[in-house]
Amino acid sequence: FSPEVTVNILSYFVRPNEGYYNSITTELYCKILGKVRTPRTCDYFKERSYESIRVVNVGSPTMVAYDHILVAAANTATDGSHNWIKKEKTNRCEAQKDLASYHASLKFANKTRSTTLLASSSPLRTMLHLPLLCPPRNELEALLNKSLAFEQMIMPKFYNTPLGKEKHIEEFWEMADKKKSFCHVDTDRLFQNASSWEQVLNERLTIFDWGN
What gap in Å lies between CA 154 and CA 197, rounded to an integer? Predict the structure, then answer.
């Protein structure tokens, strides 16, 4: 083994000023490995337009939220009152999709709030229609400061570009305040006064304003 090891750091931020760049894959084959090692693969990815790149297996905070609800409903809570879903008879992925579709149908069916709900029915906005527990501001600020410090340490040149520190801060607070990415569903509040899964579906999930 060579005593010298070269470490290259891939940035997931799109940098339109670099002509070859249109995806993290292009950077890997064209810049990190280089055309000497992967000439055909590099050319193939360079020829693809950014719009043609199909993104698969994208994580969804909404599905995480619904999964959290299902897991809480399937397990016995601390007070012993929850055991509403039989795990051995339930496909977890299908149950997530079914619950998400059901909740969406409730929002669309609510005619008195149709304008507001139709405008806010995207997956990310769905989080606002569930009771949430979110970290306090001081914890979020501490997390942001650690994230900034790490980026500055690992990628000092990038940190000082327009896509560096300022963009980092902007997108962090967008995730925290608008997307509620650091929050999770308050299932105790959602299940409050419910004695069955049917009651959660028919009475608790029909509440859309939780004051988040």
Answer: 48
> Of 122, 119, 137, 113, nearest to 209 (Cα)?
113
Helix axes 137-154, 165-173, angle to 10 degrees: 150
Per-chain mean pLDDT for the chain: 80
Q: What's the pLDDT score for residue 69?
A: 93
Rg (CA), the chain: 23
d(CA 92, CA 57): 16
Residue 81, pLDDT score: 57
First to last CA, the chain: 55
pLDDT score of 76 more than 70 = no
Identify the sign of the CA torsion 110, 114, 116, 122.
Answer: positive
Angle in degrees, CA 46, 47, 51, rounded to 5 = 95
At residue 85, the 3 state secondary structure works out as coil
**DSSP state for residue 113 in the 8-state scheme:** G
pTM for the predicted model, two decimal places: 0.69
| pLDDT higher than threshold 80 for residue 28 | yes
Of 53-62, 112-121, 196-205, which range is least confident? 112-121
Helix (H, G, I), strand (E, B) or coil at 112: helix
Residue 76 in tokens: 């016995």
